[in-house]
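Request: Mind sharing a record?
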Amino acid sequence: MSQTHSTPQTRRRRYHKADTFFFPAAVLFALIAVPLSVQGIYHHQPLAPGLATPLDHGQELLFGYGLALVTGFMATRVTLPTLLTLATLWLAARVSGAVMPHGALPALLNGLFVFLLATQILPPLLRSAKKWRNQAFGWLLLALCGVAALYHLARGLDHYGVSWLLLRESVLLFALLMLFVGGRIIAPAVAGAIERQGGRLEARVQPRLEAALLLLMALAIVCAAIPGLGLPAGLALLATAGVAAARLFRWQLWRCIHRPDLVALGVGYGWLVAGTLLLGAVQFGWLAPGTATHAITVGALGALSTAVITRTWGHRHRCLPGFYRWLLLVTALVSLSALLRILWADTLIGLWSAAALWTGAMVFQLALLLWVVMPRGQH
């Protein structure tokens, strides 16, 4: 009887990309969670008690949807057991949190998920980073994971004020994350598109402006956490909005109007500019916090995440250019949802209209993902 001998090839670990689960799971969760949250907050007998307060709504959008996106984008080489563990912890945290709000189990599951995520994405990132700006990105992710873990601990212990502070800090951290990652995605993509037309883009990553964004937002994040430092926090945020606007203008996205994916990324970055400007206004007492927060969480996070998801799956499955045209519809629905949430949030009709537009955007996004994985003969 012949014996099969293992070889280095057969013993080699197989790695997987986390976005295969987390991108569609995040979209499906966002599709369901937002209308359930509006129903729970503004109507009696909530269908999901864990989504029935503004604090829980913000928690699930940032630490449920947002961290799922971070996992899908950053965890690109994980073993199958690790991917299954991440997926199980995330899913169990969402389900338990929806039906058992403020309990020990959701806090534990969320904490374990954040810890495992940090161990997967941070060590290789920090080891490979040479420039301080790249190292700062690693420390930013560590700060985001740390704030998420502390939030779930504070929520589990019923420290309401601390929970709100950490949630507001997480909004700023997500804004900084999108300013950094968005620039790293948009700059080379726009430069390549312009070069294929025979032109040239001089302003790409723009390291000085990127460094300014990192330093200004870091200052804003620290000052916003300390009572009495609202003025420097607001000034830092207003300056961030100005730098981000200059960076966006220098990318000359109007030269890529034929590229729906780049248009969508530009719209998302534009929401970041608006959102940081509004967050600065909040620090001066000129605006309600919820208005600025939703410019970041709905407008910027919604538009940028759907663009990145569509581009990632479209490139991997070699979709034809016509596929990306549908992304413009998703971006338009997300942007309209954000506008309604900002301008018409004082009425139940406005809130439900914003929720319906968001849900519609996620339905189309999920349909795009399903279309991509269909057999080629059905495209």
